[in-house]
Design goal:
By secondary structure, this protein is an alpha+beta fold. A hairpin with a 5-residue loop joins strand 9 and strand 10. The longest helix has 32 residues. The chain is globular, with a radius of gyration of 20 Å. The termini are far apart.
Length: 244
């Protein structure tokens, strides 16, 4: 009985150490990608069943809670704008000249036919706020040594109840992210194809998003330009800016 109790105690202590180590890793990941303000020009390449579409956008992002995105090409998407403030998301369509709040079941719909949903855009990047974490082991992906970490949701306001991430041991960038439903079904897989060192930070500049419930090659997200600590006028994060 004493040996059993000792074994259980050792196992519990090992798990606690793994959780603490995982939390420290996650904090470094968040520190690496956090910025007070940033400006991003990006291209989304959507590999559809019949054709490949490229959508270019520019975004202004303030902290973790505010972002404004304007789509600039192709012509059919030009002028479409999205505004996120905390848990609220609005979209403006120039064809209808209407501002629509994206909420409820609409958040689970595909973003412009891509493998991303509006819900993915709303996901809080501060992992430690919503997930507990534990190291599962070590692995190698794209010739990079990584920690394999399991994230388990500890709040209800998240899209994915479990995630398995691979974190680069040297650069503290998430190189792969498998996102699961409560049932255990793998819903989405995110893979980093390229990293760059920009303004003192390692960032993923070429990412593949794959909806695992759909056929196809997924959606590529490419960062063409990124600037940190830029000045963003306050009006940018207002509903009136959607129609400007």
């Amino acid at each position: 009985m004493k040996m059993y109790s000792f074994t259980v105690a050792v196992a519990a202590l090992f798990l606690l150490n793994q959780q603490q180590d995982a939390q420290n890793i996650i904090k470094k990941v968040e520190k690496n990608r956090h910025s007070d303000n940033k400006y991003v020009v990006s291209t989304m390449i959507i590999h559809g069943r019949r054709a490949v579409r490229k959508i270019k956008a520019k975004s202004w992002i303030k902290g973790e809670e505010k972002s404004f995105t304007e789509y600039i090409s192709p012509a059919r998407e030009r002028g479409t704008k999205m505004l996120k403030i905390k848990d609220n998301l609005w979209m403006y369509s120039p064809s209808s000249d209407r501002i629509i709040r994206i909420s409820g079941n609409m958040l689970r719909q595909s973003l412009m036919g891509s493998d991303l949903t509006y819900e993915d855009m709303m996901e809080d990047p501060v992992i430690s706020s919503h997930y507990s974490s534990v190291i599962l082991g070590d692995t190698i992906i794209t010739n990079r040594k990584c920690w394999k970490i399991k994230l388990k949701a500890r709040t209800e306001d998240v899209s994915y109840k479990k995630r398995i991430i691979l974190v680069d041991k040297e650069r503290f960038v998430i190189l792969q992210d498998e996102r699961y439903a409560k049932s255990g079904t793998l819903l989405r897989k995110v893979s980093v194809k390229k990293m760059e060192f920009i303004q003192g930070k390692w960032i993923a500049t070429h990412i593949i998003f794959k909806d695992m419930l759909k056929r196809g090659k997924g959606t590529e997200f490419i960062i063409n330009e990124i600037k940190y600590n830029v000045k963003i006028p306050s009006y940018r994060f207002s509903k009136s800016s959607l129609k400007r």
